Amino acid sequence: MKESTVKKITETFPAALVWVTLLAVVILSFARPLWAIYFILIFVIYWIVRLFYMMVWLMISWFKYRRDIKINWLDKIKNLDKDYLDYYHVIEYPTCGEPFEVVERSFDELLKTNYPKDRMIVVLGGEDRKGEQFLDVARKIEQKFGQQFFKLLVTVHKLQSDELPGKGANVHHMELEIQKFIDELKVPYENVIVSSFDIETLPHIQYFSYLTYKYLIHPNPTHASYQPLILYNNNIWESSPIIRVVASATTFWLLTDLSRPEKLLTFSSHSMSFKMLVDVGFHDKTIVTEDSRICLQGFLTYDGKYEVVPMFVTLSMDTVYIGKFWQSIKNQYKQMRRWAWGVEHFPWMWTNFFGQKANRQIPLKKRLQYMWNQTEGMFSWAVAPLLILIVGRLPLYLASDADKTTAFFQNAPRMLENLMVIGMVGLIFNSLMYTIMLPARPKHYSMFNYLIMLVQWVIFPITMIIFGSIPAIEAQTRLMLGGKYKLGFWVTEKKTEK
To answer: What residue ranges are annotated as transmembrane (predicted)?
Structure first.
């Protein structure tokens, strides 16, 4: 079969699976409503069981997080056999038109971390298309912070014909410039740890000490990425309830996966060895979701001998709230659609795991596991909320008079209602944990706002559909249609209060 044909099939498969499932349930609701009800009940029971299973992992991660943030990791690395001062941290900050205040805040917070600043190389990367705006920001940053670190590098990326406009291409260019600087220093690549941060990323005070400890105790540290817990706490109190619920659901998803490394991919801001970056050819400059692709590149390059190490320490980031309600809602949808565009990994994984370019050195079990995680994750993201909350009720309205007289049909609504009540336990649990994880309440917010933080979770089912199923279905459908429908990189608007 031609490579182009295989590519088209694999680009079509995720969306086709979603649409066939949803249409099949609708058709079954008309043709055989009782069968459809049986299917819906089984599906809901499966998801309730899965919910409680995930809550177990959520609690495990929570306890690890609460345990690890209390440890002095700088003291621990000082007592290791390896000298941590032999290692350098490179912190990448790609930008695309963000104002000086946003960049300044990130540098201020970086200075608050407890790791030696003379072992930090900070790289601020701008886009040539932003011209004087970036150069003006860079000059101010150099004036204020230029002497605070071992080195502050400023790079300007000019888009090339073989690149997709976006973060991936910018970061790729930054890493080429970093390589030149590291070569001048003559520091071994394996002694350089790179953290690729979004520009609004604010690290926990112990982030780099914790990361260094994980890196130094790992038996093969260059064959691993390091994924922290992402909190959307920077502007959480200012954000609207809808934005808060969507952002926090992402945190809970990641918190759950941190205790299941076999399902973990890098997401958003993360860290890795510079040697790995060189070996794989740096972050992909031709895609939107370079943050999760990078660990798959490592997995492929090292014949499956690669992992994502969970880090139970936090990075705090902004929600999409910019002070304008409807624009923020629109931005939230675009952000979720961009994340859902991770479906673009599916054809790449198929080609490199099973197709003509397949790396057969990777154990078949591992290839199947990664492929299943990708397929099941994207399918569930798109289908589950719609099926449980909307489509699943369709056969109840379409059943014939004869079907409605059966005991099963008459008990079905009560069974569904009871299952939803059971599911509310997870929702209440999430709301309580979310409230505990909130940053300190600003003085101009009253205690009443804590009640709002709890009550806002009643809209979670609605947000699952509007900011879960719909953008996921759109992203997968766009991949299927291809051409002009494929997504490019969308830069999240940033706003900071001074």
So the answer is: 12-31, 37-60, 378-399, 419-438, 450-473
Strand partners, 194: 90, 272
The secondary element (H helix, E strand) that includes residue 228 is: strand 224-231
**Structure tokens, 269:** 């801001």
Which is it for strands 307-316 and 202-203: parallel, antiparallel or unpaired? antiparallel
The range of the structural domain enclosing residue 496 comes to: 1-498
The per-residue pLDDT for range 304-332, each reduced to its tens digit, is 999 999 999 999 999 999 888 999 999 99
What is the tens place of the pLDDT at every residue in 246-257?
A: 999 889 889 999
CATH of the domain at 351: 3.90.550.10
Q: Which residues lie below 8 Å from residue 392, measured CB to CB, with a gap of 6+?
A: 25, 40, 43, 44, 416
Domain count, the chain: 1
Kindly give, in sequence order, each residue whose CB lies less than 8 Å from that of residue 310, ignoring residues fewer than 6 positions away: 61, 227, 257, 258, 259, 261, 264
Whole-model pTM? 0.93
Please state the separation of Cα 195 from the chain's center in Å.
15
